[in-house]
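FORM 12-B: Structure-to-Sequence Request
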C-alpha cells in the first residue's frame, strides 16, 4: 500500500504547463515495514524548460514521477 502525504498546498501560477510540488512525502507501508521513499520534496518544473531528474539508484526518482 502506498500513502502520499502533502503537507504543503498546490500552487497555481497561472502559467499552464508548469509543475510545482511542495513538501511531498510518500511512504510505502506493509506488514511490519515502513519505507520512506520521498520526504519533504519540493520541485518546480517551468513551462517550456527541459528538466532532467538525476540521482543515485534508490533515491526516489521513479516514485516522484509516478
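FORM 12-B RESPONSE
SEQUENCE OUT:
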Amino acid at each position: 500500500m502506498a500513502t502520499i502525504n502533502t503537507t504543503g498546498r498546490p500552487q497555481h501560477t497561472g502559467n499552464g504547463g508548469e509543475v510545482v510540488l511542495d513538501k511531498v512525502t510518500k511512504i510505502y507501508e506493509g506488514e511490519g515495514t515502513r519505507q520512506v521513499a520521498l520526504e519533504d520534496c519540493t520541485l518546480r518544473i517551468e513551462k517550456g524548460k527541459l528538466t532532467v531528474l538525476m540521482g543515485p539508484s534508490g533515491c526516489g526518482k521513479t516514485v516522484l514521477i509516478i
